[in-house]
């Protein structure tokens, strides 16, 4: 079994600041991390490896510095790593990104048939959740998003049973390999790496591929291959008015609460009526 | 990374053969006969955009033929659709990516809408990503605002990124259809007009179950589970780290109970295991739009804000008069949530029961 896990290196969004004058993102000094949602998928892939045996390859497309994320994944137990990097990929939207990643997965498949592709649910920077479905569609793989649990995986029958979160409940799905899976957050806890994996990761000669290595067509990647055009980036407008402060004559909790209830009912007379009607009906 | 870009050998003009694409579509999300409200919110929004462009609103309803499905088609008109594409086949009874994608790709290629909108739900995001790939067109994710740029009659889709710290407006200029997903409860619910009707275009895709690889073994509905139904609550009492310790969550549950509302929380509380993920409000949790949102001990970080700022009325309780939440709440109360919450529970309780006696 060969599993490919797509991981993206992202800026730690908790530490991003916006330049007050130019309104641009200040990335300098912001640490780069593996997209947090990808770790749930990586962990699930490693669990399959532990349980039924598999070769886990991590794949990222990004600048050369994305290598650190691949080494981190290797230290957690991934077997192999591919860095897909090329200036020609710069500016790719999700259609072009999924195309580029698919070209690398196809090349990996030539070496050893890929049975499962894992992606994160979404990233914390681009945050679109579109790359996983894009890859599945291009590969012709079954697509399983928002998976809360992998119930069983049968290598002989090439069958997998999963629980998928939907809006109104949970779908229990059975499908055939190959497939693309995105795990929902909180479905597992990422492991600590083993000592020997950490040593191996530091020295590992990972694969570095570019557009030509994977045979991706130039017109389908980068800005040229991207249908979407970002026409404006701006900081959200703060609401014009600040909160009206609730004041009470005496600063006791009781007086403040009474003043707050007055303020709420004053601002929302309709809500007051509804609540009163509900209370009157004994609900 | 797509940064704001200058033309670099890129096509920004719509090729001649794509100019025949006309009309705005909403893919109506129905699961087991019930429609996700985001679909009607989108039909309302599509109506406004279509009126600007002078084109029709189309609602696409997919599923197995049934009286429920017919009722949904009728509802689509009352919310503002001009034409309903009713796509029925037994294979479409349960949502699965593959048959839904195949059918939608065909229907789009046949009827050529210029804009296709879906809810940014588990179904909508799953389907939109797949269709945009088969149609090789642009897709803007999780939008919070839609508009038409009249100079070139294109869709301007605005969305938050980097966890809501930035907004950006994205266009798909040289490809059709232009696609976008929109978060639930961001657009307002349109009023029903029961006198409205329109055309129904029936589509029979003629699928075979044996061609579909993924099978639905069972469905465990949330109704049979105990998860919080935050997204649809009219009143939410929400707690942040300011509550200090898990035991104090009781204070928000007590207040929510008097008000007949739900309890929401910030992410750190979920991460610390105080309560389940189903109660998290914000960028990586639920987007809510209640009539009243009481935020107790919440600082108002952008990732939380994007999930609740559309609430009709926000009351914030915080010990710090400079907490960012006071910059966007409607009502503010500087004080200790641990004493104010029980006092509010009392005050509301009294107010509502006094009326009960009087009435
Ligand atoms: C402000 C802004 C807004 C944008 N909005 C849009 C938009 O609405 N539509 C659009 O088409 N593009 C958009 N883009 C471009 C988009 O962010 C990039 O194409 C991005 O590289 C991939 O999308 P994502 O980060 O949203 O990934 P997602 O689709 O959220 O990622 C899902 C998963 O796919 C895998 N994955 C994604 N990227 C990589 C990678 N480089 N290497 C390995 N695995 C990966 C990971 O497993 C990840 O968890 C936007 C960019 C910016 C800067
Ligand atoms: C990628 C990413 C995604 C995220 N997604 C989300 C999300 O979906 N939802 C979310 O909520 N967060 C999210 N966050 C986290 C977010 O950035 C903030 O850390 C979080 O919202 C802060 O929670 P808080 O307001 O409860 O805690 P704090 O920021 O610690 O604020 C506590 C507040 O309580 C006040 N306080 C203290 N004691 C009292 C008292 N006795 N009475 C009244 N007030 C008191 C303090 O003055 C302070 O303002 C995300 C972060 C990242 C990086």
Automatic annotation (TrEMBL), chain A:
Alphabetized PROSITE patterns for the sequence: ETF_BETA (PS01065)
Keyword tRNA processing (UniProt): no
CDD domains on file: ETF_beta
UniProt entry keywords in alphabetical sequence: Electron transport, Transport
A Pfam cross-reference name: ETF
Gene Ontology MF annotations: electron transfer activity
Its job: May play a role in a redox process involved in nitrogen fixation.
PANTHER family the record matches: ELECTRON TRANSFER FLAVOPROTEIN BETA-SUBUNIT, PROTEIN FIXA
UniProt family annotation: Belongs to the ETF beta-subunit/FixA family.
Name of the protein: Protein FixA
Organism: Azospirillum baldaniorum
TrEMBL record, chain B:
CDD domains (UniProt xref): ETF_alpha
Alphabetized Pfam families for the sequence: ETF (PF01012), ETF_alpha (PF00766)
Essential cofactor(s): FAD
GO terms classed as biological process: fatty acid beta-oxidation using acyl-CoA dehydrogenase
UniProt remark on cofactor binding: Binds 1 FAD per dimer.
Record keywords, A-Z: Electron transport, FAD, Flavoprotein, Transport
UniProt-listed SMART domains: ETF
Gene Ontology terms, MF aspect: electron transfer activity; flavin adenine dinucleotide binding
InterPro entries: DHS-like_NAD/FAD-binding_dom, ETF_a/b_N, ETF_a/FixB, ETF_alpha_N, ETF_asu_C, ETF_asu_C_CS, Rossmann-like_a/b/a_fold
Cited Gene3D superfamilies: HUPs, TPP-binding domain
Domain of life: Bacteria
Domain Electron transfer flavoprotein alpha/beta-subunit N-terminal: from-to ranges: 24-216
Positions with a binding annotation for FAD: 266-267, 280-284, 297-304, 318
Entry's family note: Belongs to the ETF alpha-subunit/FixB family.
Protein name: Electron transfer flavoprotein alpha chain
Organism: Azospirillum baldaniorum
Organism placement in taxonomy: Bacteria, Pseudomonadati, Pseudomonadota, Alphaproteobacteria, Rhodospirillales
Gene that this polypeptide is encoded by: fixB
């Amino acid at each position: 079994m060969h599993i490919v896990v797509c991981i993206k290196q992202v800026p730690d969004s908790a530490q991003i600041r916006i330049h007050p004058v130019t309104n641009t993102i200040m990335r300098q000094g912001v640490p780069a991390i593996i997209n947090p949602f990808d770790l749930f998928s990586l962990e699930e892939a490693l669990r399959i490896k532990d349980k039924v045996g598999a070769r886990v390859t991590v794949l990222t497309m990004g600048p050369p510095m994305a290598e650190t994320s691949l080494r981190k994944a290797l230290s957690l137990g991934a077997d192999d790593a591919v860095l897909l990097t090329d200036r020609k990929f710069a500016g790719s939207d999700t259609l072009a990104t999924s195309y580029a990643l698919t070209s690398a997965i196809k090349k990996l498949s030539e070496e050893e048939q890929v049975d499962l592709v894992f992606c994160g649910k979404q990233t914390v920077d681009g945050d679109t959740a579109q790359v996983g479905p894009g890859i599945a569609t291009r590969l012709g793989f079954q697509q399983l998003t928002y998976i809360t649990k992998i119930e069983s995986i049968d290598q002989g029958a090439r069958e997998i049973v999963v629980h998928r979160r939907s809006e109104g409940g949970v779908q229990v799905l059975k499908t055939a390999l190959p497939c693309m899976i995105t795990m929902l957050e909180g479905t597992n806890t990422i492991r600590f790496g083993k000592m020997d994996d950490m040593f191996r990761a530091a020295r590992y000669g990972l694969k570095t591929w570019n557009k030509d290595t994977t045979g991706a067509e130039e017109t389908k990647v980068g800005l040229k291959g991207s249908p979407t055009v970002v026409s404006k980036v701006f900081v959200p407008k703060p609401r014009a008015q600040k909160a009206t402060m609730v004041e009470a004559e005496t600063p006791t909790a009781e007086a403040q609460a009474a003043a707050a209830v007055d303020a709420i009912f004053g601002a929302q007379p309709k809500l007051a009526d509804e609540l009163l009607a509900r209370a009157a009906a004994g609900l | 990374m797509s940064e704001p870009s200058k033309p670099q050998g890129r096509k920004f003009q719509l090729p001649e053969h794509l100019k025949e694409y006309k009309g705005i579509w909403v893919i109506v999300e129905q699961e087991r006969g019930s429609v996700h409200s985001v679909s009607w919110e989108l039909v309302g929004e599509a109506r406004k955009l279509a009126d600007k462009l002078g084109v029709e609103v189309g609602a696409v309803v997919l599923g197995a033929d049934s009286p429920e499905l017919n009722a949904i088609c009728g509802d689509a008109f009352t919310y503002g659709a001009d034409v309903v594409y009713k796509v029925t086949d037994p294979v479409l009874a349960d949502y699965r990516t593959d048959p839904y994608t195949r059918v939608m790709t065909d229907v789009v290629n046949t009827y050529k809408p210029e804009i296709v909108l879906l809810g940014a739900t588990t179904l909508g995001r799953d389907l939109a990503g797949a269709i945009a790939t088969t149609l090789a067109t642009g897709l803007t994710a999780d939008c919070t605002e839609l508009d038409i740029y009249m100079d070139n009659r294109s869709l301007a889709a605005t969305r938050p990124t980097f966890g809501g710290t930035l907004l950006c407006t994205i266009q798909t200029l040289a490809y059709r259809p232009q696609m976008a997903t929109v978060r639930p409860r961001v657009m307002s619910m349109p009023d029903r007009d029961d006198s409205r009707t329109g055309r129904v275009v029936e589509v029979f895709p003629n699928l075979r179950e044996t061609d579909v690889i993924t099978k639905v073994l069972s469905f465990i509905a949330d109704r049979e589970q105990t998860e919080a139904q935050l997204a649809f609550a009219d009143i939410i009492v929400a707690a942040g780290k300011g509550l200090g310790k898990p035991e104090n969550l009781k204070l928000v549950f007590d207040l929510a109970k008097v008000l007949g509302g739900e309890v929401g929380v910030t992410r750190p509380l979920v991460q610390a295991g105080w309560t389940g993920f189903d109660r998290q409000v914000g960028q990586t949790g639920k987007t809510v739009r209640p009539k009243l949102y009481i935020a107790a001990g919440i600082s108002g970080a952008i990732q939380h804000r994007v999930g609740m700022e559309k609430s009709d009325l926000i009351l914030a309780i915080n010990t710090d008069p400079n907490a960012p939440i006071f910059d966007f709440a409607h009502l503010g109360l500087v004080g200790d949530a641990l004493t104010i919450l029980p006092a509010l529970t009392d005050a509301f309780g009294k107010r509502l029961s006094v009326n009960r006696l009087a009435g």
